[in-house]
């Protein structure tokens, strides 16, 4: 039972254009959502997060949008650059018995074409 | 600069061997996590620890155990390695009430 889903395994975008990565979730109790970026042979690195009480968070070229009614999260990268080519994971945080647990999606491989 | 290190980048073991994967963080983080990453399945939580000597099962703990004797070190143990445990293993840490996890570079384990 996948609580966090990334339905697009891959995405190709031209340099300079917008990249939109999507994520859907099923558990309305998630209180934080995060995006991580992963290059081959490296661990994931934190990119941007959003609290469940907000609907948008922006950091430079990266913006995350949260639609709680649709249980949908998206990451926008504008403008896309070749160095953005990586696998992107969305993650959601659940609190259980006072401790945090993170549920990750399956990842979307972004390729930015020069 | 935050740092999470894992003892090996690549490991090859035989079926039935006992395998130790070590993770060390230098950020004084309370929480530490072990995940495995498999194609098409994303990152799945094996075990996590929110304090020294404390541990909690994640989503796929079967076949694994963990040890946290010191705050900075979190070990993952495969008591008797099997071929279905061939995977990329990722360690992460975070502050107790902070949402961001910091990941190590990963250990790619091959069990023959």
Low-pLDDT parts of chain B are: none
Q: What is the alpha-carbon Rg of chain A in Å?
A: 14 Å
Helicity of chain B, as a percent range: under 10%
Largest sheet of chain B: 7 strands, mixed
Number of helical stretches of at least 4 residues of chain B = 0
Give the overall shape of chain A, derived from the CA principal axes.
globular
What composes the largest sheet of chain A?
6 strands, mixed
- Report the helical percentage of chain A: under 10%
Report the order of strands and helices of chain A: EEEEEEEEEEE
The proportion of strand residues of chain A reads over 45%
Overall, the morphology of chain B is globular
The class by helix and strand makeup of chain A works out as: mainly beta
What is the residue-averaged pLDDT of chain A? 93
Number of strands of chain A: 11
Helix/strand structural class of chain B = mainly beta
N-to-C SSE string of chain B, H for helix and E for strand: EEEEEEEEEEE
Could you please describe the fold and organization of this structure?
The complex is a heterodimer of chains A (114) and B (112). Chain A has strands at 4-5, 10-14, 19-25, 32-38, 45-51, 56-59, 62-67, 72-77, 86-96, 99-104, 108-113. The termini of chain A are far apart. Chain A contains no helices and eleven strands. In chain A, the strands form two sheets. In chain A, strands 2, 4, 5, 9, 10 and 11 form a six-stranded mixed beta sheet that branches. With 112 residues, chain B is mostly beta strands. Chain B has strands at residues 4-6, 10-13, 19-25, 31-38, 42-49, 56-57, 64-70, 73-78, 87-94, 102-103, 107-111. In chain B, the strands form two sheets. In chain B, strands 2, 4, 5, 6, 9, 10 and 11 form a seven-stranded mixed beta sheet that branches. In chain B, strands 1-3-8-7 form a four-stranded antiparallel beta sheet, with no helix packed on it. In chain B, 37% of the residues are buried. At the A-B interface, strand 4, strand 5, strand 9 and strand 10 of A face strand 4, strand 5, strand 9 and strand 10 of B.
């Amino acid at each position: 039972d996948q609580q966090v889903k990334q339905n697009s395994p891959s995405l190709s975008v031209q340099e300079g254009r917008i990249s939109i990565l999507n994520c859907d979730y099923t558990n309305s109790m998630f209180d934080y959502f995060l995006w991580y970026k992963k290059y081959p042979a490296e661990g994931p690195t934190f990119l941007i997060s959003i609290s469940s009480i907000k609907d948008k968070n922006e950091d430079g070229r990266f913006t995350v949008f949260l639609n709680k009614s649709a249980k949908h999260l998206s990451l926008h990268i504008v403008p896309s650059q070749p160095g953005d080519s990586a696998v992107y994971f969305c993650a959601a945080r659940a609190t259980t018995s006072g401790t945090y647990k993170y549920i990750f999606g399956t990842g979307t491989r972004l390729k930015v074409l020069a | 600069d935050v740092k999470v290190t894992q003892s090996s980048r690549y490991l090859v073991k035989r079926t039935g061997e006992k395998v130790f994967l070590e993770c060390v963080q230098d950020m004084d983080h309370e929480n530490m996590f072990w995940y495995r990453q498999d194609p098409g399945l994303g990152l799945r939580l094996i075990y996590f620890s929110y304090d020294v000597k404390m541990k909690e099962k994640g989503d796929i703990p079967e076949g694994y155990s963990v040890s946290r004797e010191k705050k900075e070190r979190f070990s993952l143990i495969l008591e008797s390695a099997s071929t279905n445990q061939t995977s990329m293993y990722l360690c992460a840490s975070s502050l107790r009430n902070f949402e961001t996890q910091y990941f190590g570079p990963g250990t790619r384990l091959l069990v023959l």
